[in-house]
Amino acid sequence: MKPIKEPREQTYDRGLENLIVGETGIGKIDGEEGKLWYRGYDIEELAQYSTFDEVAYLIIHGALPTSSQYERWLLELQVWHGPPVEAMTVLKWLPANTQALMLYRTMLSIAACHIPESENTRLDAQWRRPARILSWCSTLAAAAICHIRGKEPNPFNPEKLFSANFLSQSLGKEPTEYEIKVFDISMIVQAEHGVHTAALAALATISTGADLGSAVLAGMGALSGKLHGGANQLAFQNLIQHQSVEEARAWTAKRLSEGYKFPGFGHRIYKTHDPRVIILEPYVEKLLADKGDKLLWDIYRTVRDEVESKLGNKGIYINADGITGIIYHALGFPPESFRIPFLLAIQVGWMAHCLEYLSDGKMIEPGAIYTG
């Protein structure tokens, strides 16, 4: 009889909230103080002085680009702006009432079939993929949003940066400079946030020896759930239903008395004000004022203040999902497409974590306790 091996020491943590999957030099979150850094840079500084294109380079490559590196990065993004035509033409076979993220995911899966060296998972090949994925995703996501709107996307403009191009392609109109700025900042502050659920899905996939595109698709699948990627839409719909501040206040008080869990409020990490919200709020207030929609801003503040006054002592404050839906709405995105801008931002962090993990990571394979 073979000797019975002693079981290896394991930790049970339902939801894996307190387990550490590895070490990282990408992002740092201080949930007690409400601070967020990318590669050592405070996001407040990056939001003020950088573009999303620069921040994407920083997160993926580990340092802000020099002028020559930035030129090469932008050129690489421009070269790959046109995804395979098959990924675009598939839209005519897909119903317009499909969730925008599902359309986009289908298109990216088809595009991935046309990636040169798609089966090559050597580290150097993996590092060639982020720019291609970012560029393709922008065009594919814009086409998916246009499809549900019954419109055709505007053409890509090589003279524009990422946010300006995506807004123009998605919405069929030229955004103002301020609209571009607000959207770009929203992309910056959502570009990385540690190993959350979707990032873990991407990491688990890349750890098997899969390619980076497959890892992004895995993260996208996790983000399709309403508990992870859908809170921005749900939080916005809670605001837009009200016709007055008084109505919003009464509704919030009633919901609080019922123990309702407000989407867009509370965070597993932040036990104080979300730094991303602090950065975005002044921009959103001006954006809505420019649009002549001060009422929506007043309703937002009313719901925020009512909830935080009652639940702030429990560490429940408004989070980024509670405000970004307002930005997307003000810019013209339909609510059913709100997951897509968030995805375009956060996939930068996924790719960085995947590439970091590949340097010495082992296959992620947690166990389970048999109870049957």
UniProtKB/TrEMBL annotation:
<dbReference type="GO" id="GO:0005975">
    <property type="term" value="P:carbohydrate metabolic process"/>
</dbReference>
<keyword id="KW-0808">Transferase</keyword>
<dbReference type="InterPro" id="IPR002020">
    <property type="entry name" value="Citrate_synthase"/>
</dbReference>
<dbReference type="Pfam" id="PF00285">
    <property type="entry name" value="Citrate_synt"/>
</dbReference>
<dbReference type="InterPro" id="IPR036969">
    <property type="entry name" value="Citrate_synthase_sf"/>
</dbReference>
<feature type="active site">
    <location>
        <position position="321"/>
    </location>
</feature>
<dbReference type="InterPro" id="IPR016142">
    <property type="entry name" value="Citrate_synth-like_lrg_a-sub"/>
</dbReference>
<dbReference type="InterPro" id="IPR016143">
    <property type="entry name" value="Citrate_synth-like_sm_a-sub"/>
</dbReference>
<dbReference type="InterPro" id="IPR024176">
    <property type="entry name" value="Citrate_synthase_bac-typ"/>
</dbReference>
<comment type="pathway">
    <text>Carbohydrate metabolism; tricarboxylic acid cycle; isocitrate from oxaloacetate: step 1/2.</text>
</comment>
<comment type="similarity">
    <text>Belongs to the citrate synthase family.</text>
</comment>
<dbReference type="InterPro" id="IPR019810">
    <property type="entry name" value="Citrate_synthase_AS"/>
</dbReference>
<dbReference type="GO" id="GO:0006099">
    <property type="term" value="P:tricarboxylic acid cycle"/>
</dbReference>
<feature type="active site">
    <location>
        <position position="267"/>
    </location>
</feature>
<protein>
    <recommendedName>
        <fullName>Citrate synthase</fullName>
    </recommendedName>
</protein>
<dbReference type="GO" id="GO:0036440">
    <property type="term" value="F:citrate synthase activity"/>
</dbReference>
